[in-house]
Amino acid sequence: MPEGPELHMASQFVNRVCGGVVFSGAVEKSEVSKNPEVPFACTAYRISAVSRGKEVRLTLTPIKDEGAEGGGGKPMDIVFRFGMSGFFRYTAQDELPKHAHLRFYTKEKPGKVLSFVDIRRFGSWEPNGTWQAERGPCVMFEYQSFRDNVLSNLSDRAFDKPICEALLNQKYFNGIGNYLRAEILYRLKIPPFVKARTVLEGLLPRDYAELDVKPVKGGCASPQSPEISLSKKVKLKRESPDLLNLCHTVPLEVIQIGGKGYDPEKADYSDFEAWLQCYYVSGMKSLRDHNGRTMWFQGDPGPMAPKASKSPKAKKRAKKTGDGENDAQVVQEKEPAKKVKEEKESKRKQRRKGKEVQSDRGTPSPVPKRKMSQSRKTPTAGQAGEKFQRSESESRPEPVLNKPAKPVQGTRGPSD
Predict the structure, then answer these.
(1) Is 258 or 42 the better-scoring residue by pLDDT?
(2) pLDDT for 257 beyond 70
(3) Average pLDDT, integer, range 134-146
(4) How confident is the model at residue 132 (pLDDT cuts 50, 70, 90)?
(5) Enclosing domain of residue 202
(6) Which of 134-138, 232-236, 320-324 is predicted most confidently?
(7) Is residue 8 part of a domain?
(8) Are 23 and 110 contacting, i.e. CB atoms less than 8 angstroms apart?
């Protein structure tokens, strides 16, 4: 699933490929998408993008003196949430991606198209949309507001949950996802299933305003902005990191190395895989949290770990070694999964024993039929009756019939 760094790089990708490009016509939606139509059509407009946490906002701006149809010449904002598999692509029109569900066409010839591609269709867009009010400040580019928002709301019931589940709550950790939470907790050696409030209540509301990147109008500034270099910022935070520090700096590290497979034009993600220390790394443990999401960790999971939680099946990942060969790294079978299997097997054995005892006490099982020779076969009902009649007729003497005496001439017989 795309997380904060991937959505920020998506906005950078749009700004890079759409810079100076003029788009034209109506915004086109695929027939299969259940997202709303975008009521925008213009003879000439430009596209720019900005991100905040797990959202990206595209702004369609009509070019002056070119006129607009249906938009009155006013810009339109479209807010995207990527779901499980969303991303942007910029291709020729005759190379339109298969799952391109929203399309913006250029005015130039040969024509090109910017597409929002979403294979699993969990992503969404909102015409004339704004940042979701339920989402907190961005962990990457609104750090001081993010830190204050967390520490001033520790009485919220959201912090009664394990820290690994609280980190996915976008109301407080906007931009953190599954792989980021694993890497952050691993670096601090915090068990994932410890109450979040216990981990956070000892943190001080330190003022890092002098380290924050200044936000641009309507969104968040890029870490490459001239106010302060990203490398200096990360170095300062590393000197005395706490959980909230790492929620800020770890995503920035991902942006520096190129992200978790966002760029559709990039095929080699060996740098990102080498950067991972915990998530899907051989030798690490994993459990499904109370929401069914897989949590990767090392050591003790903590007192709030789900009982009889199932570990995901072992997967192989090819990783390049120093000599260039691919070594298949198999995730070891986890101890909780073994316990679950043993419990299921013992239950099966108990059920089998119960059935055997019940058969011994109840009706005896039928004796298997034996094949009889042709001479000893039991006769059918018809055959038995025929045999009985034949034997009875053979043993009984044939009755003597009294023949009527011939009538004497001159006398009447019985028929007269």
Answers:
(1) 42
(2) yes
(3) 97
(4) very high
(5) 143-210+239-297
(6) 134-138
(7) yes
(8) no
Rg (alpha carbons) of the chain, rounded to whole number: 40
Whether 340 has a pLDDT exceeding 80, the answer reads: no
Q: Which of 3, 6, 165, 273 is catalytic?
A: 3
Residue pair 413/405 in contact (Cβ under 8 Å)? The answer is no
Poorest-confidence range of 56-60, 71-75, 411-415?
Answer: 411-415
Q: Give CA–CA dist 224/236, Å, rounded.
A: 16
Look up the pTM and report it. Answer: 0.68
CATH number at residue 45: 3.20.190.10
Q: Do 79 and 156 reside in the same domain of the chain?
A: no
Report the C-alpha gap between 164 and 280 in whole angstroms: 16
Which of 6, 29, 54, 336 is an active site residue? 54
Catalytic residue among 2, 5, 62, 336: 2
Domain count of the fold of the chain: 2
The reply to whether 12 falls in a domain is yes
Respond yes or no: is residue 3 known to be catalytic: yes
Q: Secondary structure of the chain in the HEC alphabet?
A: CCCHHHHHHHHHHHHHHHCCCCEEEECEECCCCCCCCCCCEEEEEEEEEEEECCEEEEEEEECCCCCEECCCCCCEEEEEECCCCEEEEEEEHHHCCCCEEEEEEECCCCCEEEEEEECCCCCEEEECCCCCCCCCCECCCCHHHHHHHHHCCCCCHHHHCEHHHHCCCCCCCECCCHHHHHHHHHHHCCCCCCEHHHHHCCCCCCCCHHHCCCCCCCCCCCCCCCCCCHHHHHHHHHCCCCHHHHHHHHHHHHHHHCCCCCCCCCCCCHHHHHHCCCCCCCCCEEEECCCCCEEEECCCCCCCCCCCCCCCCCCEEEEECCCCCEEEEECCCCHHHHHHHHHHHHHHHHHHHHHHHHHHHCCCCCCCCCCCCHHHCCCCHHHHHHHHHHHHHHHCCCCCCCCCCCCCCCCCCCCC
- pLDDT at residue 187 greater than cutoff 50: yes
With 0-12 CB in 10 A as exposed, 13-18 as middle and 19+ as buried, what is 82? buried
Name the domain boundary from 86, 103, 127. 127
Res 57 pLDDT > 70:
yes
pLDDT at residue 241, as a whole number: 84
